[in-house]
Write a structure and sequence with these properties.
Blueprint lengths: L10 E6 L7 H8 L3 E3 L4 H18 L2 E3 L18 H9 L6 E3 L6 E2 L4 E2 L6 E3 L13 H27 L7 H24 L2 E6 L5 E3 L2 E4 L2
Helix pairs in contact: 2-3
């Protein structure tokens, strides 16, 4: 996102209020003009979204929204929230979908693992909202989600084929093997000098010692 922020010209982002209290990042985000939404207070959230509508027209500013409402690393696009679409319809401004391919092949948020990886970012054609009303929002949401989902699947497949990775693979397993190889490189010279032998065969759990050979189980 930050890699091409400079081409966005005037743009702000809707973010959850909790990010405001994340130290220097929260302060910098507030000073940069981010719009914070209190997701636990529907009335305040609606007020903030209404203010967004006025700002977009008066200041000719772009608004970056994460339509799922929160980030999920499940290798799919979830159902969208209505807030951003209400803003688009009220302001009668077009929606420009931006789609990231899956990062499931290198990120495991539950295991707190982030490896190097590849992502394709695709900007689709703008979808007009002129003439639409609040009654058209459900159909508009589904139309936007469909084109984004098709692109998400296609670009994810492209990354998997080009770099021989799988978005459905367990990132933690490959990372643990990487850590094992690093330990192997560090420990093996010391064991060799002392007459011990390191066996890096993987089986199923905790390290065991068999006849002078150390074997790691997982």
């Amino acid at each position: 996102m930050f890699d091409f922020w400079h081409v966005m010209d005037k743009c702000t982002v809707i973010a959850k209020k909790e990010l405001l209290y994340t130290g220097p990042f929260g302060i910098a985000a507030w000073l940069s003009g981010l719009i914070f939404i209190d997701r636990k207070n529907a009335e305040k959230a609606h007020t903030a979204m209404n203010e967004c509508t006025d700002m977009l027209k008066e200041k000719r500013t772009k608004l970056w929204v994460f339509p799922e409402g929160t980030r999920r690393n499940t290798n799919e696009i979830h159902q969208f929230k209505k807030g951003a679409f209400h803003v688009a319809v009220r302001s009668q401004l077009p929606i420009m979908p931006v789609v990231y391919s899956s990062y499931g092949s290198f990120l495991d948020d539950k295991a707190k693992i982030l490896n190097n990886g590849h992502v394709i970012v695709t900007t689709l054609e703008p979808i007009e909202t002129k003439g639409l009303t609040s009654e058209d929002i459900p159909e508009l949401m589904e139309r936007v989600r469909t084109v984004m989902l098709d692109t998400f699947k296609a670009t994810t497949k492209e990354v998997e084929n080009k770099y021989s990775v799988s978005s459905g693979a367990k990132v933690g397993l490959s990372a643990s093997k990487l850590r094992l190889r690093c330990l192997d490189d560090l420990i093996k010279p010391k064991l060799a000098s002392s007459g011990h032998r390191l066996n890096a065969a993987v089986t199923n759990g905790s390290p065991t010692k068999e006849g002078g050979a150390y074997r790691r189980k997982e």
